[in-house]
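Morning run. Coffee first, then this:
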Amino acid sequence: MNQTLINFEDYSLPGLIFNGVGCLFWVVAYVILVLEIRKKKFVEMPAYVAGANIGWEFVWSWIYHPNTGLLFALSYQAAFLLDCFIFYSVLRYGTKQPMNAETKKHFALFCIINFIFWIFFSYFYRNEGYDTLIGANSGYIINVILSLQCVFLLMQTKDTHQFSMVLAWARTLGTGLITVSMFFFYPENHFVQFLGISCLLLDSTFIYALWKRHGTLFGVQSKT
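And here it is:
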């Protein structure tokens, strides 16, 4: 692991600030998600992307490490540890999400296979030179899938009071601020910039749809 606390040599200060605060918002989002799971026994993380999320975090927490510095690497590891509980909860409560009976029957097996697939995907994607040194390309591929699946899950779930507006904002701000950092870190990487903007549009769509259901932009009203 890079022992430099923050890598000012390869990255600009504004980019590091946006990226660092964005990573922090994602850690906060995971904490909120864990608390919501414990309270509601329902997982807002779309079941079909949960394996991809933790698979990427496993690779970038324990096999590779972002070269932005130790502080950033620790944020990746914190997210991974929180995601262990989230993934366990997906295995336990994930069938509460809309899916047919046949899918429910093989749900746990699918999640495990999905997790293993994305470990190998993320590892080889970086090892063979397709990724950046902080995992941005592969991370944003998964993030687009996550953002899209969140919109689909919201539209398919009748009781949208299962969803937290605070979590939606934390997730949106986290990805949005990291996307700003991509323009500082990789000004020529239009691929990752495009994916970042796509995430912003999808996450904004999610917040708008949730707002229309809940009637508030900054919190969830009690169900009556």
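Residues 220-224 have pLDDT under 50 and may be disordered. Good start to the day.
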